[in-house]
Amino acid sequence: MTVHIHAESVLTDMDGVLIHEEHPIPGAAAFLDGLRERGKSFMVLTNNSMFTPRDLSVRLKNSGLDVAPDHIWTSALATAQFLDKQRPGGTAHVIGEAGLTTALHEIGYVLSERHPDYVVLGETRTYSFEAITRAIRLVERGSRFIATNPDPTGPSANGSLPATGSVAALITKATGVEPYFVGKPNPLMMRSALNAIGAHSENAIMIGDRMDTDVVSGLEAGLRTVLVLSGSTAEHQTDVFPYRPTHIVDSIANVVVE
User: Fold this and answer.
1) Any idea what the Cα angle at residue 16 is, between residues 106 and 10, rounded to 5°?
2) How far apart are CA 60 and CA 44, in angstroms?
3) Is the pLDDT score of 157 beyond 80?
4) Structure-derived torsion over alpha carbons of residues 23, 24, 25, 27, reported in degrees to the nearest 10
5) Active site residue 239
6) Residue of 163, 164, 154, 88 lying closest to 120 (CA atoms)
7) How far apart are CA 41 and CA 257, in angstroms?
8) Can 13 be counted among the known catalytic residues?
9) Domains in the chain and their CATH numbers?
């Protein structure tokens, strides 16, 4: 069943909503075209901090979806914006990839291992014992602990991979210090994305495929929410949560924003 939603702005998750393992989800291109034709502002969100918006724009284009870099909001960008507001011009020791280091450089942060203000943990495929040990020692010495997102695992062709949340738990176990997670389900990610496109929560919707990240963060940021069943959540699984999305649909093909 298709739902027609009146909204001026749209936040949508990427994986599981627009693409699945580099393949576009049927209806995704038409949905994005419809937003542009109707003059709706939108932002594509991802908790993955490895890639820059330009990287992700090319990835989406290779999958047949036209999304400009300035319509992509990552947990790395949200983290950089958060740090810029908390401690402008600070220093950070980073475990992560170009998406995170570029975002921090662009807001004027200096990357340093000498008494940094923050240890910032993001997504990477090259976690090393040495890097984790260095992070543990810096946190023990007083550096504040930030992580881009709490996702414990990420997908791959061969199965699950340890992700930021798992490595953060290791550092927490060693230091007794919990990180502050900036990405979903923190509603801060939603609000920063809305601010980036000049949108307001009362006129916006959040579309995602996960109850425990997309829907709850949208809900807590004051947005109406749409759960699509084309990703990681089956409809029967929604009943275990104490909150409900505004709409549940099979896929992005069943959403029309008016």
Assistant:
1) 60
2) 11
3) no
4) -160
5) no
6) 164
7) 11
8) yes
9) 3-47+184-257 (3.40.50.1000), 87-181 (3.40.50.1000)
Angle at 99 between CA 88 and CA 199, to 5 degrees: 65
167-188: b or e for each residue (b if 16 or more CB lie within 10 Å)?
bbbebbeebebebebbbbbbbb
CA dist 205 and 159 (Å) reads 31
Number of CB atoms found within 10 A of residue 91's CB = 17
Residue pLDDT, tens place only, 176-232: 999 999 999 999 999 999 999 999 999 999 999 999 999 999 999 999 999 999 988
238 vs 228: CA distance, rounded Å: 11
Q: What are the Cα distances from residue 16, in Å, to 69, 109, 131, 209, 210?
A: 19, 33, 31, 6, 9
State pLDDT tens for residues 12-70.
Answer: 999 999 998 889 999 999 999 999 999 999 999 999 999 999 999 999 999 999 999 99
- CA R_g for the chain: 18
Catalytic residue, from 15, 151, 209, 214: name it. 15
As given in the structure block, the two tokens for residue 158 are 């061969």
Cα-based angle 54, 47, 140 (whole degrees, multiple of 5): 110
pLDDT of residue 45: 97
- The answer, yes or no, to whether the previous bond of 185 is cis (omega within 30 of 0) is yes
Inter-helix orientation angle 187-196/75-86, to 10°: 90
Catalytic position from the list 13, 151, 209, 214: 13
